[in-house]
Write a structure and sequence with these properties.
The protein is an alpha/beta fold and 161 residues long. Helices cover 20% and strands 34% of the residues.
Length: 161
């Protein structure tokens, strides 16, 4: 399983259940990369993404403890164990966790690759991704040249375990 995440400085990822930034080139890459695969989302993230240009022909799995939650267009798993069972027949390189914070933390131990867009901006946030630069077992496998979107500078970093 892989994770895809966009972080500001300090591994910030959100504030008050909202993304910090939306970079069109980033969204296009996510759509291309995940198309035809399986994406895993937390309930709040799924609800924010309904109608998003990121969604295409992916199989969508939502992790929610709410047993009465039955969204259109997605299957629901009620525990990490149930989710892992659901994806065990999927090729692991075609399963992508797209967040939010709680789901990232729960699934990071089961992932071997993290695709991170690192935005060089000090966003005010209350949601964070683990600092993989200091995490044991993770290493930078690839890093892009610096890109810009208006006045924002960002790089793509691929971490591997």
């Amino acid at each position: 399983m892989q994770i895809i995440v966009t972080c500001g400085q300090g591994f910030t990822i959100g504030k008050d259940n909202e993304r910090l930034v939306s970079i069109p080139a980033d969204l296009k890459w996510i759509r291309r990369e995940t198309d035809g695969g399986t994406i895993v989302l937390g309930r709040k993230t799924f609800e924010k993404m309904i109608g998003s240009p990121v969604l295409g022909t992916q199989k969508i799995l939502v992790l929610s403890t709410d047993k009465s939650y039955h969204p259109r267009g997605a299957a629901v798993c009620h525990s990490v164990e149930e989710l892992l069972k659901e994806i065990e027949t999927e090729p692991s390189d075609r399963v992508y966790c797209l967040g939010g914070e709680s789901l990232y933390r729960q699934l990071l131990p089961y992932c071997d690759t993290v695709h991170m867009t690192k935005v060089d901006y000090p966003y005010e946030a209350n949601r964070y991704f683990p600092n993989l630069d200091e995490a044991e077992g993770w290493r930078v496998a690839e890093e892009s040249e610096e890109n810009t979107y208006f006045d924002l500078e960002y790089t793509y970093v691929r971490y591997e375990k």
